Amino acid sequence: MIALAASLDINGDIVELGAGWGTLAFPLAKGFPHIRVTAVEISPVPFLFLQLRALVQKRANLEIVRRDILSVSLARAGLVTCYLYPDAMKKLKPKFENELQPGTVVVSNTFAVPGWEPSRVGELEDLYRTRIYEYRFSPPS
Asked: DSSP labels for 4-35?
């Protein structure tokens, strides 16, 4: 997903919904030092790990927040990344449609946004041939 992000023209902040252990957030912050990266995680253990990791791997442009993914504003996002589960993607769809700016890129690992047509579907070279869905948001007509 880092290679995919590197190929994008990102106009706005990067928001990772469900940041987990920071496997994506930290490399994104390093790779895009001029862009604000927000890692959103609600689970206490991964959140604590993210906080500790941030003490060791300092990134001035990385903000770690402990919030529900549905409560975080996406209005300034140029790129939204997520690796969640089908029900979460279903719940995020109306949030995306209400908050994202036209042209915002949404990249989802494994799970598609229901009812949206991806602009690109990639496949990782891993054991599971994991699908990566890329969307360029345009408001529903």
From this structure: HHHTS---SEEEEES-TTSTTHHHHHHH-TTS
Smallest CA-to-CA distance from 105 within 70, 137, 76 is with 137
Sign, Cα dihedral of 63, 66, 69, 75: negative
Tokens of 109: 């690992």
Q: Which helix (H) or strand (E) holds 122?
A: strand 120-123
CA dist., res. 83 & res. 20, Å (int): 9
Between CA 53 and CA 56 the distance in angstroms is: 5
| Among the listed residues 106, 90, 91, 112, the one whose alpha carbon sits nearest the alpha carbon of residue 138 | 106
Query: Tokens 């946004």 label which residue?
Result: 113
Domains within the chain, CATH numbers bracketed: 2-136 (3.40.50.150)
- Condensed to tens digits (0 to 9), the pLDDT of residues 64-94 reads 999 999 999 999 999 999 999 999 999 999 9
pLDDT digits (tens, 9 = 90+) for 32-67: 999 999 999 999 999 999 999 999 999 999 999 999
The tokens for 136 are: 């360029």
> Strand, helix or coil at 99?
helix
